[in-house]
Amino acid sequence: xxxxxxxxWIAATFGQAPGDLSGYERALTHGSQAAANxxxxxxxxxxxxxxxxxxxxxxxxxxxxxxxLSRRFNSLVTGQVCAEIARSLDVAAHLKLxxxxxxxxxxxSDNVLGDVMEALIGAFYLDCGxxxxxxxxxxxxxxxxxxxxxxxxxxxxxLQEWAAxxxxxxxxxxxxxxxxxxxxxRFTVKVSIGKLAEATAEGTSKQEAxxxxxxxxxxxxxx
Length: 223
Description:
Layout: H1 3-14, H2 22-27, H3 39-60, H4 66-76, H5 79-88, H6 99-103, H7 110-128, H8 130-146, H9 155-165, E1 172-179, E2 186-193, E3 197-203, H10 206-222
Antiparallel strand pairs: 1-2, 2-3
């Protein structure tokens, strides 16, 4: 990929021509490819994303208490959501991966794509400033906020409340399997409520798998 091609994609993606490509190049570089990879920029981009989303929710929902805002926030800044945004922007086509990482499916890993999306936000923030980063985040995340007329309840919390309301034992989570390379793991988790019911789900992290299993069990119990 030439500098001109990368610059064109950055401009189309972020709505502003880049001043310095080096940050974006690093944001798109996996640890399997070079020591100068996206990890430090991911750290920065995560904070820029968090601040931008928190500020936006504070202004967008002035009547909501802290607890409801936190529920909205937590559902919007997950690695899975960042990965979905990355896919919509065709980030994978611009990734720099080592041969083994590419063969292991890193280009379609939620963990990798989510981290790279945050790194790109960090690079854009350093290049163009907070206002530009805020505008990009609002444009990229807008449909997800508008799709939540009410603050979403986390599936694990909802399942816990269902069990308490029906005088059942609290949900129990068990990791059944962990497979795949370190940069693209797959966890299989089972959740059960005593002997009443159980569900199994997969995810790219233990937390993601637990959340998916809780959502599946809730759907079964409510169905």
